[in-house]
Amino acid sequence: MALLEVSGLSVSYGRVAALNDVSLTVREGEIVTVLGANGAGKSTLLRAILGAVPAKAGGVTFAGEDVSREPPHARIARGLCLVPEGRRILISLSVEENLLLGAHMRRDTEAVRREMDAIYGRFPNLAERRKMLASCLSGGEQQMLAIGRAMMARPRLMMLDEPSLGLSPLFVSKLFALIRELNAEGLSVLLVEQNTTKALAVAHGATVLELGRVIMAGDPKALAADPRLQEAYLGEGAAAPAPY
């Protein structure tokens, strides 16, 4: 069943077209990755899906409902969540206060506390620093905090914008293990990522953007073997990713 359907989405900033007739689908339980160079329109796509930037044309359907005219908070309430590039955590607040921000639309206090405890169980480093300012966290810990904050909103679909950016190789491996783990637990994921090899290795589907247009889409293993993608993003002779 399709959880997210993006149909003919176009976005412009003034006279500059950022997205042009972009369509993609994320089914229940899938990880779909969006690839492309800087300036391809990947972040704009995620923000448009959330409703944070207005669409010039096209529509967004989530869980069978047309949400194209809904504001971001209404889409978040439906279970659509974005972890933005650069984490965007509030470094002047504590780890726990940042997590609580993710649940600010919820009124089920006891469930919120149980889920926060579960997040601390998943991320022991955050548990140890729960009362510390988020500015004290490493880059990898801040990314885990950003994902934990998003989880507090009880998402059905989590959109991740360049989550591995600036992380050490060790934390990148931990991050992608976490994405697989969350997906195995039933979370659908729309992943924008410049680490093409790792993104294709975890994805069930892939879309490649160039200058705001879809130029390739389909099975990740087939795309990884495509000479055009290898030349542009993987390097000549790159091996196809291991199967999911």
From TrEMBL:
GO biological process: L-amino acid transport
GO molecular function, one term: ATP binding
Chain ranges passing through the membrane: none
Domain (ABC transporter) ranges: 4-236
InterPro entries reported for this sequence: AAA+_ATPase, ABC_transporter-like_ATP-bd, ABC_transporter-like_CS, BCAA_Transport_ATP-bd_LivF, P-loop_NTPase
Name by which UniProt lists this protein: Amino acid/amide ABC transporter ATP-binding protein 2, HAAT family
Domain of life: Bacteria
SUPFAM superfamilies hit by this protein: P-loop containing nucleoside triphosphate hydrolases
Family classification: Belongs to the ABC transporter superfamily.
Keywords noted in UniProt: Amino-acid transport, ATP-binding, Nucleotide-binding, Transport
Pfam entry (one): ABC_tran
